[in-house]
Amino acid sequence: MKKYLLPLFGLVVMGSACSEKDPGIKKPDEIIVDWDAAADSSSLNLVNTYWNASKKCFNYVSDGTLNFQYWPAAHALDVMVDAYERSGNNLFKTTIDDWYYGVKALNGNSFYNVFYDDMEWNALAMLRAYNAVGDEKFKTAAVDVWNDIKTGWNENAGGGIAWKKDQPWSKNACSNGPASILAARLYQQFGNIADKEWALNIYNWEKETLFNPANGAVYDNIDSRSNTIQTAWIFTYNQGTFLGAALELYKITGEATYLRDAVKAADYTLNSLVNSSQLLKSEGTGDGGLFKGIFVRYFTQLILHPDIKDADRKRYVAFMEHNAENLWTKGTDKRQLLYGPNWGEIPSGPVDLTVQLSGCMLIEAAALLDANSQF
Fold first, then answer.
1. What is the DSSP letter of 268?
2. 129 is in which domain, residue-wise?
3. Disulfide: which of 43, 246, 346, 364 matches 261 by Cβ 3.0-4.6 Å?
4. Are 219 and 212 in contact (CB under 8 A)?
5. Residue 18 within any structural domain of the chain
């Protein structure tokens, strides 16, 4: 077991470290990381480097460039919730509260958006914020946005939530996986049977239209004008939200087929969307910088579910540990605590919020897994 020894802003201790459980027994060839301390450093630095106190939002670039974008804001809120639930630090709680007002103002004094997937990310994050801090404004906003998201369903391509309000013919994995997760969580928390039906219908449409049951790949989109499925675009975040939706429906129904779907999507990612170092591959900067962090979020929930096979859990944990250790020891600019799109390489120059968030999600996930005795 790899445990505790990395101080805040940290120095990595390589080799000849004593095990916490076995004092005096040296384990030479081990990387020993205090993942809770690493997550503290990582998420505090996200606030210190990117938070814009006057606008009450996260800047888009580490050099202080605002360039507000609605959808990354949701994932920044998610990281604040991760950090607050883990640490109880009121700095994160204050940031969560301020986020609501800043993001709403910068988004035209509304949480509505022309992109259905962007609204879904924000509704999911606000529902988590509600559960973390108990503030009704987050619940009200999440439910309100969900009601608008449902208007995106149409019968082009046989159903599904559109990607964009002015493109009803474009049906994307990124606008359906998160919608199914949101509907399933709303049902589990508040008991509205209609939300359960939405979760099932959206998931079934995505599975039948964009999922390859032979290998677990989730295709990016279908253009219903020509019935063309974009099979060349397979991204980590679509894998993550598909398996996340499958996991939520398994919780609701207990039907093993959903858990099998989740494992199949996870396995495709680990087999096909990695680089030669067995790290989740770089999907670039900009929007792509966020993709693998989203996969990590839902993949972590799969690892923690008690019903997955022990053999699957063991290899999933090993994969996550490998990625987290490589990011923290090889891919982090320790002077500024910044991450790059390649988790095995130190970034150079300013870093997009999207890219930084993926790294923050991985480090918070490592702390969560460690706290649950997985690392």
1. H
2. 32-371
3. 246
4. yes
5. no
The total of structural domains in the chain comes to 1
CA–CA separation, 309 and 35 (whole Å): 25
DSSP secondary structure letter of residue 342: S
The answer to the question of residue 274 being in a domain is: yes
- Give the integer Cα–Cα distance in Å for 340 and 112: 31
> Which neighbouring-strand residues pair with 250?
none
pLDDT tens string 110-122: 999 999 999 999 9
Contact, 341 vs 355, CB < 8 A? Answer: yes
Q: Does residue 6 form part of some domain?
A: no
Mean pLDDT of 299-316: 98
Site of tokens 């009704």: 136
Cα(336)–Cα(206) distance, rounded to whole angstroms? 41
* Cα–Cα distance, 6 to 31 (Å, whole number): 9
Tracing tokens 């800043």 back to the chain, one arrives at 102
Kindly state whether residue 21 falls inside one of the protein's structural domains: no
Separation of CA 197 from chain center:
24
Q: Is the pLDDT of residue 2 over 50?
A: no
Element (H, E) at 34: none
Across the chain, where does the E strand assignment appear? 13-14, 17-18, 26-27, 31-32, 51-52, 57-58, 162-164, 167-172, 221-223, 228-229, 332-333, 338-339
Return the bridge partners of 338, or none: 333
pLDDT at 6: 37
CATH number at residue 164: 1.50.10.20
DSSP, collapsed to helix, strand or coil, labels residue 280 as strand
**3-class DSSP state of 24:** coil
The CA dihedral of 318, 324, 329, 334, to the nearest 10 degrees, is -170
By 3-state DSSP, what share of the chain in percent is helix, strand and coil, each rounded to 5? 60, 10, 30
Tell me which residue of 222, 221, 269 sits closest to 244, measured CA to CA: 269
Helices 136-149 and 116-133: crossing angle in degrees, nearest 10, is 160
Give pTM, 2 decimals.
0.94
Can you read off the two tokens belonging to residue 146?
A: 């969900």
Q: HSE on the CB side for 128, CA within 13 Å?
A: 23
Place of tokens 């959808």: 71
What distance in Å separates the CA atoms of residue 102 and residue 98, rounded to the nearest whole number?
Answer: 6
CA distances from 9 to 39, 45, 229 (A): 10, 9, 45
Taking the C-alpha atoms of residue 117 and residue 128, their distance in angstroms, rounded to an integer, is 17
